[in-house]
Amino acid sequence: MSAREASFSLPWLDRRGEFSSLKALVFAGILLPGLWLTVRAISGTLGPRAMIEINHQAGLWAVRFLLLTLAVTPLRFIWRWPELVFLRRMLGVAVFAYAAIHLVAYAGDLTFDVPKVVSEIFARPYLTIGFAALIMLIPLAATSTNGMMRRMGGLQWRALHKLIYPITALAAVHFFLQSKLGVTEPIVIAALAIWLGAWRLLAARIGEQRAGSLAVTIGLAAVVVIGTALGEALYYYLKIGVPFTRILPTNFAWKSGIRPAWIVLGIAIVVIAVAYGRGLLEARRPRGRRAQASVAAKPSPSPAQRQGKAA
């Protein structure tokens, strides 16, 4: 590894080996949940079953970072922000780290009785699904370095990393099935996963630039928000037989509490607002500076991408 590659491997440096405030901020955000759990563990505020609390929190953050990893490419085009691509590896490694902590904490709650842990994983479907997602994460984490990209070649590397799609599906199902107290966040997670998957399918059909346009983003967001409200109503109908006419109106009543569709709507508003704001800023730039900024912001191809094009 060259000195330049070694410096680039540091999570707070950009591809030129210079300090990146964006990467540093995201790196700090990745570490915060783990640090907070550590502080709570030291202070003894994790509750009577500390390992289960660590298990739940680590699993929750693994799913959140997984969605953020999957969101990098859509947001690159929706927000016209090419530099976001350099966050994907960092977020992906964070997903694996928190998922591994999730499993270790579960084993810790069972006093690291390996035969019992294994039997529980295969006896409970939601644990089997979650474990399968973790196993599929291992090759992605192991091949996240520049060296592995070069050894595998661009085509093989990209083909392997498409595992993120079934991993996301399995993680969403696992998260939904293991939720016992409430389903608001599992429904939101499922809705966001469907949104990101739908964007990928749409981008493959009409192109990433068009899929990232403001009009398409608003339209797709509206479909997902409405689908979230309908999905919540369908869940309660299938689960306990509550009719649609009782659940759907709660999306228009403040006293009913925060509904999943509201959360998805809030996320959609943020995405659209940032896209609109960046569009206004871009439009105000002089044409020459706009072109220079576009060239400067365009990420250079990775070794894997270069080998893929050559192939």
Automatic annotation (TrEMBL):
Tell me, in one coarse class, where this protein mainly resides: membrane
- Residues in a coiled coil are none
UniProt entry keywords in alphabetical sequence:
Cell membrane, Electron transport, Flavoprotein, FMN, Heme, Iron, Membrane, Metal-binding, Transmembrane, Transmembrane helix, Transport
- Which InterPro entries does this UniProt record tie to the protein? Fe3_Rdtase_TM_dom, MsrQ-like
Tell me the cofactor note: Binds 1 heme b (iron(II)-protoporphyrin IX) group per subunit. Binds 1 FMN per subunit.
**Entry's Gene Ontology cellular component terms:** plasma membrane
Q: Which residues form the Ferric oxidoreductase domain?
A: 58-171
| Keyword 4Fe-4S (UniProt) | no
Annotated region Disordered: the residues are: 289-311
Report the transmembrane regions from the record: 21-39, 59-79, 86-106, 126-147, 159-177, 183-202, 214-238, 258-281
- Per its UniProt record, what Pfam families does this chain match? Ferric_reduct (PF01794)
In terms of PANTHER family, this protein maps to: PROTEIN-METHIONINE-SULFOXIDE REDUCTASE HEME-BINDING SUBUNIT MSRQ
The protein here is known as Protein-methionine-sulfoxide reductase heme-binding subunit MsrQ
Q: Which organism is it from?
A: Kaistia soli DSM 19436
Biological classification of the source: Bacteria, Pseudomonadati, Pseudomonadota, Alphaproteobacteria, Hyphomicrobiales
